[in-house]
Amino acid sequence: MTEFEYNEYKVVGYVDFFAGNPNAKIEVVGYTDWRNNFTPLKESESLKLFPPYGKVFAHNFAERYYETKGTLVCISVIPNEKVGEGYYAYIWNKSGGVYEFGARVKKLKGDFTANGQYNYTLLEENNLLNVEHDTFVSSGGSIYLIKADSQDRLISYWKESSLDTLTVNGRLFVTDTAKGGEDGKIDITTDEQLQEWFMKNVLKKNWNQIFEEKTFRNVEPLLREAFASSKGLDGLVISSRIKRLTHITRALTISFEELNELKTLPWLKDSIEQSISVHRKAYLEEVEKEKAKELQEIRERYDMEILLAKEHAEEEEQRLKKLIGDIDETYQSKLAEQERLLQEKKVEAELLEESIAGRRKDFATFEESINRLEERKERIIEDFSVVKEVLGVGSHSSAPILQAENVTIEDLDIASDAIPVYQAFIKSLENALKTNRLTYSMATDIGNQIALYKIMLVPDVAIAKVIAIASMKCRYALEYVSATWKSFTDLWQNGLGQMVEECYRNEDIMHFLFLQNINLTYLPNYMMPLIDIQRDIVSMFPGVNKKFPANLRIICTLANDDVMPLAENCIKHMGCIDRSIEKDFYGRIEIPENTNIGYLTPKVLEEAGKSLKNIPNYYKSYLEDEQ
Hints:
- This protein is of the alpha+beta class.
- The protein has four domains: 10-100, CATH 2.40.50; 103-187, no CATH class; 191-253; 405-624, Rossmann fold, CATH 3.40.50.300.
- The chain is 45% helix and 16% strand.
- The protein contains 18 helices and 21 strands.
- It has a seven-stranded mixed β-sheet. Strands 1, 2, 3, 4, 5 and 8 form a six-stranded antiparallel β-sheet that branches. Strands 16-18-19-20-17-21 form a six-stranded mixed β-sheet, with helices on both faces.
- A hairpin with a 2-residue loop joins strand 10 and strand 11 (142-146).
- Helix 4 (191-203) packs across helix 7 (235-250), helix 11 crosses helix 13 (461-471) and helix 12 packs across helix 17.
- It starts with 9 loop residues before the first strand and ends with a helix.
- Mean pLDDT is 82; it is low at 392-402.
C-alpha cells in the first residue's frame, strides 16, 4: 500500500495529548478492515503512510475522549486540507466512531506461584481484588486475566507467545485472545477457604475413618477423591492444595461452634466430653505456665522501655536548656542591634524633616515659574506652529547613512522547540497577557497585528515586553526618541541600523526594537520611510541597500506629556493596539508558568501574515486622546 485507503480501513493508534491544549497526536501502529481484522505496521511503514511523523492529528480529542490517554484506539481518518511543511497528512474524522482497541497489560509487582494463599495476597498488594473491569496482568513471562466481579478461585493465563500483543511506548497491549484456548490456571484459594472446604467436604463426611486411624495425616486419598468431584481443577492445582492441606491439618484447630456441631454425632459426643474432662487440668496448667512466662517477658520489656525513656528525657532536658541559652543570647544581640538601628533612624528622620522644608521652598518657586509660563501659553503655541512648519521642510531627505551607533540588545530564551502552527503563538500570547493581568481576550487581535504590520503602536512599553515574552525566544533592544531627531538618519544611527544587521545575522530568531516616546519630535520627519515600506511603496531603507528583515518588528510607545501632535497619515498605517488595555496593567512583568508551547519563528509569522485581511486597527483611539 503506497497511500492509506482511508475509506476502506480505520486507523489503530496510541493516544498522546499535546501539552497545554486539548488536541491529540495518534501514533499509528496498524489498521483494521470492516471485519475488524487487524494489520500491524512497522514504524517505517507508519512514517511512509502517515507523513511526516507517522501520526494522525486529532483536534479537540481530549474534550470528548480524555479517558483514552495512554491506550490504543480505533478511529476514522481523512486527508488534511492544510498542506505544507509540518502539517499532518491525515486528521481525525470526527463523524466516525471511536472505540478502545485491545487491552493494556499491567505489570504485576511480584510473580505468581502454585500457592493459592500467596497468589491471593499478591493480588491484594497490587490492588487487583474485586476489579471493576476485566484486567490483564503480566508475570513471569505469562499474561493472566483477572475477571471483573468474579467469585471463581482460579485465574486463567496464557504464555505471551500464545496471544497477539503489541508493545507501544514501553506499554504492552493484548490485541486478540482468539488464537487458542488458555494455557492453564492458577489457584487463589486462601488457607481459610481451604480449611473451611476441608471441614465441610472431608472431615465431617469421613470422620469415622479418621477417628479409627487417630490421625489427620493419612487423608490424602480422601482429599483426591473430594477434589475429583470438583470441575475445572488441573493436576497442578490439586497437588498444591493437597500439599497445603497436609500442613493445615497438622495444626488444625476446631472452633467452639464446629466442636458443638461435631458433638451432635451420638458416637462422637461421649468421646469429646471424656477427652476434655481427662485433659482439662493438664491443659490449664500448661496454659498458666505459658501465660506466666509471657507476663514475665512483658514486665522485663516494660522495665527496659521505662529506662530508655528516662535516659532519653534527660538528654532532651539538657538539649532544651542549651537551646534556651542560645536563644537568649541571640535575643540580647538582636535587641542591641535594633536599638542601634532605631537611633540611626531618628537621626535620618531629623535630616529628612530639614530636607522636606527645603523641598517645600523649591516647590513654591517652581509653582511660581509655572504660573508665569501659563500666562505666556498662547504666545508659545504660536511660536511652536512656526517651528513645526520649518521642521517639515526637507524632513524626508534620504541622505547617505554612514554608520549606526550601538544599542544594548538582550536575549530572551525560554523555550527550546519551535511552534508548528501560528495558533500556538496566539495561545502563548494569551497566557502572557493573563499572567500579567492584562485583557487576554485581545490576544488574537494583537497577534494578528504582529503578523501583518512591521511597525506597531502600543499604549505602554510593558505591552511590548509581554509580546516579546510570548514569542518565548527572541532578541530585543530599547531606544528612546530624542526631540532633536529631524530625519530617518537619526533613527537609523540610534539603534535601527544595528538591529537590522543583527536580524540578517540571526535570520531564524525574532527581533524586536522598542521605540519609546515617538511623539517627542515631528513623526513624519523620521518615520515616513518606514511607513512607505509598510505600504509597499518602496522595499529598501533609504541610503542603504537593505530590505526590511522579515524577522524584525518595531513596537512604538508615546510620551505621556502633551508634546508633538501625532500625524494621522503615519499612525493609520501602523498596527495600533486598543489604548484601553493600558488601564489594566500594573506591577512588574512576569513570565507565564506554561512554557511548553514553543517559540515563535519568523517563518510561521510570515506565513500567517499572508492570509490575514481586514483586521481591527485602533489608531483613532490615539488621535481622540489629543482632541
